[in-house]
Amino acid sequence: MSSSQSSARIASSPAVPSFLSEYRRGARAISPAMAAVVAYGLVFGAQASQKGLSLLEVALMTGLNYAGGSEFAAVGLWASPPPLFLIAAVTFLINSRHLIMGAALTPYLKHLPRWRALTALFFMSDETWAVGYADAARRAESGEAVPFSSGFYAACGSLIYVGWLAATATGAAVGPLLGDVEAIGFDMAFPAVFLSIVAGMWKGPRAARPWAISLVVGALTHLAVPGAWYVVAASLAGLATAFYSGDAE
């Protein structure tokens, strides 16, 4: 190959997007979810402060645990003294969905050093996973050599994380002034986000069976058994359905 042909080939090859440009693309993609995260972050912070948690305790809880669903469940179960075993069991079961989410994302992280892969998994919220996984899958289908975009995922993870911490801290600070935050309607932002995630990842009734069975079992348990055991029953039913459906296939 002559030098002119080589130069022409290099000139015609697509440029690799910079980290900053990919970060901007990720910021645009995750921005619709930010409003909902801020809304139910305010609700959580207010509820936690009304249960007696301090601003520092709320910040540590949301920053280190970083799992909104289990945090809502823990605050809902909070009492004096708190039922620690039940809170720990519910937290584990609710967060166990991250095992499946992490397993789905891991094939796209194989090219990263371990510390970067673990960092990416720490910032894996439901919103970050849904947007990041969809982008990686789309890029893989289009033939990208490296489907996972570090800049894109970094924007999703960092903005959701910072937004969640800022919103929960703000909610904890002004919670005593808000009164019944559920009366405002902000609590509807939490199920709305999950419904939008499910709708965006809909692959037919067969793939939705674990969700449907979890919903039915949770509702029946809520009617039959007092307390928050419906969370445990629904989580176990959904996980068992997903596991045995996978075996059957």
From TrEMBL:
Main location: membrane
Localization terms from the record: Cell membrane
A GO BP entry: L-valine transmembrane transport
Alphabetized UniProt keyword annotations: Cell membrane, Membrane, Transmembrane, Transmembrane helix, Transport
Transmembrane segments: 29-46, 152-178, 184-202, 214-244
One cellular-component annotation, GO: plasma membrane
Membrane topology: Multi-pass membrane protein
InterPro entries, per the entry: Brnchd-chn_aa_trnsp_permease (IPR011606)
Residues annotated as signal peptide: none
Iron-sulfur in keyword set: no
Family: Belongs to the AzlC family.
Protein name according to UniProt: AzlC family ABC transporter permease
Species of origin: Plantimonas leprariae
